[in-house]
Amino acid sequence: MKEKIRIAAGQGFWGDLPDAPVRQVEGGQIDYLMLDYLAEVTMSIMQKQRTRDPNAGYARDFVPLMKQILPACVERNIKVIANAGGVNVEGCAAAVREVANSLGLKGKLKIGIVTGDNILPRIDDLLGRGFELRNMDTGQPLATVRDRIQSANAYLGAAQIVEALQKGANVVITGRATDTGLTLGPMIHEFGWAADDWDKLAAGTIAGHTIECGAQCSGGNCQFEWQSIPDMANVGFPIAEASADGTFVITKHEGTGGRVSVPSVKEQLVYEMGDPHEYITPDCVADFTTIQLADDGADRVRIFGIKGRPATDSLKVSVSYSAGFKAVGTLVYSWPDAYEKAKAADKILRARLERLGLTFEQILTEFVGVNATHGPLAGDSSSEVPEVQLRVGVRDHDRSAVEKFTKEIAPLILTGPPGVTGFAGGRPKVEEIVAYWPALIPKTEIAAKVDVIEV
Amino acid sequence: MKIQLAKLAHARSGDKGDTANVGLIALRDEVYPLLVREVTAARVKDHFKGICHGDVERFELPNLGALNFLLHESLGGGGTLSLMTDAQGKTFSTALLRMEIEISDEERERLKL
């Protein structure tokens, strides 16, 4: 059994720096590469893609990435854990298998496939048996949006990843698995942690939370002394150097930019935090008030002392559903009186919308350069502000109302206040809103499955 | 006298649905008790008047020298439903750092502020 492993984060979200995972593999020693592709509404995008094309429905960029790094990963025994499978884990695995074959890796690679998170085909059965899948934020039962559901997945934890690794998988592909489970899984596998060793499971979970947003813990989006953080063009993504005793060090490859420091790690720890006493995952309940941090040399932070509690009996479910349409239009007004002009334009626009009889579930005007980020806290804007972007958004279930709104923006250029530009993009696009519905389901209702295929 | 939080703390914020979270972290451990005393949930609710339409909850993390605030009903519906530029609440962190808190001369001297 190993005493220490290095788990590298390669993507903080689907669309993060494309070469980051490559640099994690090539930049120094690592044992695992962890890739988190799934944001809350990503599954619905993938579901739509699969409806159009039965072979689609997963993070497509994962396949060319595998082509690029698989030879090095196989040679150096670096295992890849990714929730790239989306709503078509088997399709993703088949594509990776094909790539591995074309690279001449036959007999050298096993792909672990984790399924069972997709409960879309079972929704009616579940609702029929009395599981209301109430929205965790609003308390409403799922039945209220039943006819608009686009995807439904339970968040799986580390257990299936561990099983795949124990069956010899070098690449583990999951669907909706928690981002923390992608990091915790390798630790349980390598260190043989017991299923009820809550403190260690909590430690691995917090290691996962620390690196799941990629460079956001190694200098990216870091407020603390941000001006002095070196070489961000070459930012190093984080690596969790985990020990069997449940302590770990957050670091990055030598020679990379960015900075791993106690303040940079603290900023990531509090990111998207709820009640710090109970960070609930399928694997355990982690207590963030027990985390201890210590400077461990240049770009190294040691984390220890973490306590955890038993996991709950439920899994979180993420349902996506169609929730109407929206569009956002913008125009830019220049000095002098930029803010006054933008306000006048908004007034004119709203009067015209009213004359057309258009009402919306929501309409929002923001003045970028004045109040779009801090609202009234930004205080009074000087009349000398050099430019202001007028930004108006509407949302409604009636698509045609939103369509009509999009035709009212550009005319303001010739029929409104002067000094206006920034319309080259044409009419605003009408976007279908796919909203997120978090709910809970008993663990006993989810039968996750692990398959391992040989290349 | 008054002092702005930007001189005492750094912060990061994010979203969970229509709730924004702001983690406020003391720049130095010695400053943390001052944050605990002055940056109450009620004061934060008042600071975000017109922005936060729900309750404000506060959690203490003395181990990180940090306070975590949950600002409910702040993101125009949250997620993809929101029309806001900052639908994910990313700039609530710096918005909180605008807050001014009371500090005595004695404290200012002792904390070298």
Mean of residue pLDDT values of chain B: 97
Identify low-pLDDT runs of chain B. Answer: none
The profile of the biggest β sheet of chain A is:
10 strands, mixed
Quantity of strands of chain A, as a count: 19
Identify the overall geometry of chain B: elongated
Count of domains of chain B = 1
Structure classification of chain B: alpha+beta
Neighbour order of strands in the largest sheet of chain B:
2-3-5-4
In whole angstroms, how far apart are the ends of chain B?
12 Å
What would you call the quaternary organization?
heterodimer
Q: Could you tell me the radius of gyration of chain B in angstroms?
A: 14 Å
Total of DSSP H or I helical runs spanning 4+ residues of chain B: 4
Radius of gyration of chain A: 25 Å
Strand line-up in the sheet with most strands of chain A: 11-12-8-7-1-2-3-6-4-19
Strand content of chain B: 25-35%
Encode the helix/strand succession of chain B as letters.
EEEHHEEHEH
Largest sheet of chain B: 4 strands, antiparallel
Count of separate DSSP helical elements of chain A: 12
What is the secondary structure topology, with strand pairs?
The complex is a heterodimer of chains A (455) and B (113).
Chain A: E1 4-11, H1 20-26, E2 32-35, H2 42-52, H3 62-75, E3 79-82, H4 89-102, E4 110-115, H5 123-128, E5 149-154, H6 159-166, E6 171-174, H7 179-191, H8 198-211, E7 239-243, E8 248-251, H9 262-269, E9 279-280, E10 285-287, E11 292-295, E12 301-304, E13 307-309, E14 314-334, H10 338-355, E15 362-368, E16 387-396, H11 399-406, H12 412-415, E17 420-421, E18 431-442, E19 449-454
Parallel strand pairs in A: 1-2, 2-3, 3-6, 4-6
Antiparallel strand pairs in A: 1-7, 4-19, 5-14, 7-8, 8-12, 9-10, 10-13, 11-12, 14-16, 14-17, 14-18, 15-16
Chain B: E1 2-4, E2 9-16, E3 19-26, H1 32-38, H2 41-47, E4 56-61, E5 66-71, H3 92-97, E6 100-102, H4 105-110
Antiparallel strand pairs in B: 1-6, 2-3, 3-5, 4-5
